[in-house]
Specification:
K(+) binds at residues 221, 240, 242, 245. The protein is α/β, with parallel strands linked by helices. It has helices spanning 26-34, 83-95, 105-112, 118-129, 133-143, 146-170, 182-200, 202-210, 224-232, 275-290, 318-321, 333-348, 357-369, 378-395, 405-409; strands at residues 4-7, 14-22, 44-50, 53-63, 74-81, 99-100, 212-217, 250-256, 259-265, 293-298, 312-315. 45% of the residues lie in helices and 17% in strands. The structure holds guanosine-5'-triphosphate, potassium ion and magnesium ion.
Length: 416
């Protein structure tokens, strides 16, 4: 495998810029630039040189292959945070025959070298993308190996159940088949209940990971865009007294007390001869339908088409009508946000461990292979248990991981 390098810190000026190098030639490359680095995991302040050219003063550290992020020999150079310095070091590394890392390549190597399982890699990607406290906590659980522990626990129970079945096959009299011991079915029922419990939490967990969407819908001129601007405390959407001002869906990302919530401002709902407005209305309905929650905003506080249980009904322009909320003055908006928060908080209370479709699919396949009717021949029962064990392994990428590599590792930035 090539020795790779990348800037691990965001490009640009800063206190320090870190370049990470990983692979068989990491130590050699580091020592070419910095002189001998005898001890691993110790910081050395060194003058970096490429031949006669003095590049920078840097703090350098190297890691042995069995004690590094990637599971390979690694070097880290903490440079002064200037793009010209980073470029100069990169030029030197290229001339030594090293190559630039691709997005997520360090993490991919960590996975391939067994430093983390696939669920931990997915968790790490989520952690880097997390925008709120609740997302950070969810990602931390995944990246700290909880999914791997769960799958290991299920595997152990299944292996025990499988051994009991195999024993009944081995010792069966040729004419009188031995019964599968009752303990096998107890074990399988226990595993199935656990898998189903985790699977039932998947939809809520996936929603939290991706973030919630709350659509503001209502007739033209209800004050939807004014409300969006009030929530964002800035001018996000155009406001005018002309009905049909908003056409595209305008998104406002917020951190609602730790929950990731994107508010959607939409076109006022009405029949229109204007082709573009009609497109806007269709889009509004589509996005509102797919959202987690809808705020129905109108002068009389009534329901709009597509109402669903849990949706919020809000009377607009309270400064004129005396009741409801006012996007103009902000009256009642804090209470409205509190209501949105409590609905979503309630839904996020069902959050569990599994937030990726890939993991949920493995769970589903495991559950369906454990649908074993009584009286099935031991050979077939044993085969079904083997399938479930296989799915527990695939859940953490011990098998069948390659097909997900692109999707998972390319979502990282370069340098991770
Ligand atoms: N008095 C008062 N006027 C408001 C309030 N909210 C909005 N308006 C006014 O109502 C008009 C329409 O506001 P918008 O926010 O553009 O309404 P909208 O629902 O986004 O309208 P469309 O995008 O056309 O569907 C503007 O003149 C706003 O200034 C409010 O709470 N009180
Ligand atoms: K308007
Ligand atoms: Mg609008």
């Amino acid at each position: 495998m090539d020795t790779i390098f990348a800037e691990a810190t965001p490009p640009g000026r800063g206190g320090v810029s870190v370049i990470r190098v990983s692979g068989l030639r990491a130590r050699e490359a580091l020592e070419y630039l910095a002189g001998e680095v005898a001890e691993a995991r110790r910081g050395y302040l060194r003058t970096l040189r490429d031949g006669d050219d003095v590049i920078d003063q840097a703090l350098v550290i190297r890691f042995e292959q069995d004690a590094s992020f990637t599971g390979e020999s690694v070097a880290e150079l903490q440079l002064h945070g200037a793009p010209v310095i980073v470029q100069r070091v990169e030029t030197a590394l290229l001339s030594l025959g090293l190559r630039r890392a691709e997005a997520g390549e360090f993490t991919k190597r960590a996975f391939i070298n067994g430093r983390m399982d696939l669920a931990e890699a997915e968790g790490l990607s989520d952690l880097l993308a997390a925008e709120t406290e609740a997302q950070r906590k969810l990602a931390m659980r995944a990246t700290s190996g909880e999914i791997g522990q769960f799958s290991e626990r299920m595997r152990a129970l299944l292996i025990r159940a499988g051994a009991l079945v195999e024993a009944s096959i081995d010792f069966a009299d040729e004419d009188v088949p031995e019964d599968i011991p009752a303990e096998t079915f107890q074990l399988l029922a226990e595993v199935r209940a656990e898998l189903e419990r985790v699977l039932a939490q998947y939809p809520a967990t996936e929603r939290l990971r991706q973030g919630y969407e709350v659509a503001i819908i209502g007739p033209p001129n209800a004050g939807k865009s004014t409300l969006l601007n009030q929530i964002g405390k800035r001018k996000v959407a155009l406001v005018s007294d002309i009905a049909g001002t908003t056409r595209d869906v305008i998104e406002l990302r917020t951190d609602l007390k730790g929950l990731p919530v994107t508010f959607l401002d939409t076109a006022g709902l009405r029949e229109s001869d204007d082709q573009v407005e009609a497109m806007g209305v269709a889009l509004a309905q589509e996005r509102a339908d797919a959202a987690d929650l809808r705020i129905h905003l109108s002068p009389d506080g009534g329901k709009q088409a597509g109402f669903r249980d849990g949706d919020l009904l809000v009377r607009a322009k309270s400064d004129l009508s005396g009741a409801g909320i006012s996007g103009l003055t902000g009256e009642g908006v804090a209470d409205l946000l509190e209501s949105v928060y409590s609905v979503l908080r309630m839904r996020s209370s069902g959050v569990g461990l599994v937030s990726h479709l890939r993991q949920a699919d493995a769970l589903r396949r495991a559950v369906s292979s454990l649908e074993i009717e009584r009286g099935l021949l031991p050979e077939f029962v044993a085969e079904k248990i083997r399938q479930a064990i296989h799915e527990m392994s695939s859940m953490v990428g011990k098998i069948g991981a390659e097909e997900y590599f692109d999707e998972i590792f390319s979502s990282f930035c370069i340098g991770k």
